[in-house]
Amino acid sequence: MIQAERLSFGYPGRTVLDGVDLTVSDGELVALIGLNGCGKSTLLRLCAGLLRPGAGRVLLDGDDLAGLSRRAAARRVALLHQSAPSVPGMTVRQLVRQGRYAVRGPLGMLRDGDDEVCVRAMADVGVGGWADRPVDALSGGERQRVRLALALAQDTRVLLLDEPTTYLDLRYQLEVMRTVVRLRKERGLTVVMVLHDLGHAARFADRIVALREGSVVADGPPDEVVTPGLLAEVLGVAGRVGRDPVGDWPVCYPDHPLEGPNPLRNENHIH
């Protein structure tokens, strides 16, 4: 469904992405990992049509996103941003309705009443009972569930999530991840998410794509990609990789940060 071809993007004096190729198939759940500043969030914004590439292109079902308006792109791809400023007094219902802008337009947003898509979005993430509560009165985990409902209200088949578990307690991190996995199955979604926690990526994703300095340096199933070499090359730490005794997914044991020339740097470390 999503195909990035030789994608490049940057600002004067700074290259963010350099010749990135990425294909995400229908129904996949792909995790993007890498250090801050490696281009993960920029790649998501390009795939949502919010940025225009300096070179290359992004295809969605064969259509070049550069040829679509932002509103047209929003009918096909939903992006949950890393953070969003709260609007004092805005209720959960009012926020989730914002997800219908691409379909209903500015005049449609003024109509009273929730359409069935908003009702389903709130129900799917378990926030229907909070519809009239102010968003700024919710906890961090509750707000993230509401923001996920906002993205679902766009009613697209592609869901892009930028660090959906950041700043959340472990309980809420797991709650968000499990909700995403469930919704992906129930709705038949294609999901691409930026994650800082390699453990979550290894457990929940079909594929892990690792970026370093604007380029893809690893791409494959967690069993193949999560290695001591990945920890060193991409995350800058020395560590070990084991297996979860119950779920059998890779588990990382970071030991210490690497400084200076990387002693583990070797082309064979990353598959």
From TrEMBL:
Highest taxon of the lineage: Bacteria
UniProt KW keywords: ATP-binding, Cell membrane, Ion transport, Iron, Iron transport, Membrane, Nucleotide-binding, Transport
Gene Ontology cellular component terms for the protein in this record: plasma membrane
Membrane topology: Peripheral membrane protein
InterPro entries attached to this UniProt entry: AAA+_ATPase, ABC_transporter-like_ATP-bd, ABC_transporter-like_CS, P-loop_NTPase, Siderophore_ABC-ATPase
GO MF terms held by the record: ATP binding; ATP hydrolysis activity
Recorded coiled-coil stretches: none
One GO process term, biological-process aspect: iron ion transport
Subcellular location: Cell membrane
Residue ranges of every copy of the ABC transporter domain listed in the record: 2-238
PROSITE patterns attached to this UniProt entry: ABC_TRANSPORTER_1, ABC_TRANSPORTER_2
SUPFAM superfamilies the record matches: P-loop containing nucleoside triphosphate hydrolases
Protein name: Iron-enterobactin transporter ATP-binding protein
Organism name: Streptomyces inusitatus
